[in-house]
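Re: the pair you flagged

First of the two:
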Amino acid sequence: MKTRILEPADNAHSGQLLIRNLLLSGLRYAPDKEIVYGEHLRYNYTTLGERICRLANVLSHAGIGAGDTVAVLDWDSHRYLEAYFAVPMIGAVLHHVNIRLSPDQIAYTMNHAEDDLVLIHDDFVAVAEHIAAQIPSIKGYIQLTENDQPVSTSLNTLGDYESLLADASPQYDFQEFDENSVATTFYTTGTTGNPKGVYFSHRQLVLHSMAMSHALASQEGQPMLRSDDVYMPMTPMFHVHAWGVPYVATMMGVKQVYPGRYVPDNIVRLYRNEGVTFSHGVPAVLQMVLGCEEAQDTDLRGWKMLTGGSAPTTGLSQQMIERGIEFFTAYGMSESCPILTVVQLSAEERALPPEQQAAARVRTGMPIAMVDMKIVDPDGNALPHDGAAMGEVVVRTPWLTGGYYKEPEKSNELWQNGWLHTGDVGTIDANGVLQIRDRIKDVIKTGGEWVSSLALESMISQHPAVAEVAVVGIPDERWDERPCALVVATAAQALDATTIQQHLQHYVDQGQINKWAIPEQISIVTEIPKTSVGKINKKLIRQQLT
């Protein structure tokens, strides 16, 4: 096959895909739209552009340049948004530090990333002081504070953020460079070993932002984020770029609201007072928000919500429908930047009453633009897209991480046969809709059959006395594994194991599950362990039960 390649004119622009290009349209379309930080601060897009330039000048003056790494330890804030742009725009790498890790794990990730400079909120200064001697690469710290006076510290600080920005120029001549330069890095926690570093280039982040904006705004079946919407994340900004939405929101020029530390009552107040229309978060966070005191007397109708991390249970879905929240499910992972699929509702599904749309809204969804996806058997052979065959989900798209930083063996495992392996088991139907059935490591093999922990969780969640549930498989000499459930009861109702087992028997009678899928071990607990990003921590649960 012939390929025709045309040589550009000698003076033609190279057209590099750089994060700085995402700023152009937002500043142009919406100079007066607001960026809000809780109850502390608000300013417009024009000021955002100036503050990004000021931060770039501060970093350059501190000796940070191309290839250096700037770490951020902060709550969701305007400062984090400014760092999303200023750090990679000068050619440096932004390290999103997971502030919910243990101090030793934070030290490990900062050492592994070879951080040079740290932007640190006062709330994390004590942790930084404790681990500072373990991270010799760090040359200095910039303090982030909500008060006029930063906390006293033994750290080598260059000053406080606002004072440094105030003294810096609001202009900066951002240079063009290779779009394949690394822009961001962060660390994902796995089932074993230390956290693994993933990284993304300018090109990957720009392409992900473009595809994400298309997915959130272009389809009538999923109109989530458009120019007149008001955006507030409920996913930490250190976690996969807050799903990439701050980049999209800034590119679109929408009003943005950042809540700081996640306090459910505060989130609801900001939703109400700032007119928030679009958010995203994992089911555990959504459950806390719906259950908080402030939410009980607040009209939540019209709040559009993108959920991910795991599918919302039927119980949570019913709660959101009852409160008038218009929710959609998305799917992705840290290694995929992250969004791979989003639910799309057909015209027929949109015409149904809200309570009849739940089944469609909790599907894993349709691959977004430029995502190539299939399911494979353990030998890597492609399986049919018939809605029945189950296999591991593998993907290819231009914005997937190239591997794990400084870990070639694990990178090769991730990228077997030229496809990124997600570790998820799913089906794909004839229309291309993906349905995740479980994580490979979470599927329960009992009595010679595979049982989905997610399916059991969804069934248990439909009992009116259940507030939250987690199901895992634990070793069993006779049956290989047996399902075990941890259940949190609602405040208003009593609950015991027998009640749950009787509730599940109805699904046995309907032929949806076999009788050996009913857990014999059911514990009523006050809290279910969560990971640092709010997902149910099944690894820890299994450790505690075995």
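Second of the two:
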Amino acid sequence: MSNLIGSKPFPRLALCMAVSLWAQTAFAALDIAIVGGRVVDPESGLDAVRNVGIEDGRIVAVSSEPLEAERIIDAGGRVVAPGFIDMHAHGQSILGGRVQALDGVTTALDLEAGSLPIADFYAQAGIEGRPINYGVSVNWAYARIAVFQQTQPEANPGWFFEHFGSLEWQRDLADDTQLQAVSDMVEQGIREGGLGVGVLLGYAPGTGRHEYYQISALAADYDVPTFTHARYLSMIEPESSFEAMAEIVAAAAGTGVQAHIVHLNSISLRDIDAIGALLAGARERGLRISTEAYPYGAGSTGIGAAMFRGPHWRERIGGATAASFEVDGERLDEARLAQLQKEQPGKEAVIHFLETERAADQAYLDQAVLFPEGVIASDGMGWMAGDKPVTDTAWPLPPTARNHPRSAGAYSRFLRQYVRESEKLSLLEAIERVSYGPARILQDAVPQMRRKGRIQPGADADIVVFDLAEITDNATYAEPAQVSTGFDYVLVNGVPLVDGGRLDTAVLPGKAIRNPVRDTPVPGDSGVRR
């Protein structure tokens, strides 16, 4: 290869072409060749018709020359792009992964919340298998619940929602002993390979500022990010969304931690102008702050969450009424809202915080979705049938299953709305926000991500092939259990998971995204006693 490249600096795209030519001679017949498609690689800027060769789960060739392979996939008239990376996917299950694969997702990570114990999560997922790549951060809230409720955390979301009615962990300050115990549990999760620390401050707004700062410093010691759900949801000061975002900025400035802000759209509400300026200014001054958003005007969470309690909470989030909440496809009245918040505080509800049929509200959403260098993340949840999870092996997705439509259609909706219909983004720009952008945010802390989000020799063969003219999100608030259409092929680690538009339930090619397990603590100056 050195003869091809020479001794002078070589542009990245030219390097890719040189490696491609080498790969053609190195492999007489590849496993798979995707030929004649419009190949989009955001890192190098490539957007041209090319052939892509795959061998042993990796991309080995990106070439304008013909390739020989045991299987040829004709991608003529289609886009060939890196598989989409969802940084905010709570539905960590076989069923959730299959639904997301039909939306172009090849890697789904639960980073806002995460799990605990980390070793238990990865062990169980490894036994079950997954259709797409998977991984989690360390769930700080789980640690807090365990300490305040004097119990042991369980690595499943149901355990978390069971504790929604317990207010101590949500509202009380930790004393020195409790804070040390929480920090120790979080540190153990990092050492077990957690991808960072998920900090659900919005669910525990009574937490001390010192605690958030200390957890941020701990993450900085280990060179992993925090993924924070901001403390407040409000357009009214004090305790506003702006104040909550400023807290994240302050922690990043004081500790040097890489701070990722989840769902910028729903936290900012209609205050995105001021919040956007705050975050942009912080980044201009060198702070490592990143953002994500999903392309919907409604969010979803437990109906008894702290953000929906307390004095004036309705006014704080823009004048919400009971009808702003939707449960099992029906808008609520005041009596039903009060009943559910009292009797079933963990009940999943859709909350319409923006009414996007209004041009002004759609414009607020656009600002968050299109925030410079921001990425798209679904915030998708697990699929429910009444109050029970849908069986993980169920397929096709039962038409009566309930969820927020973002769990099935976030990425198709984004491409449809912002590329095909409004043309607010070029295809290359949009693909960066769903693939290379998330990989770039994570790759310094998570080595595996250096091989994701790219169509280049040496990258993992996580690839989507789709028709831009046909790609469509079919899930709605009324009927969320409708998978996206338009994805002809979805390859995960070189294995066709979606083949000719049909999902193959016989394969589970997903692999764990996990940091190396550390045997000993990392020395640092966070102030955490070890």
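The radius of gyration is 23 Å.

-B.
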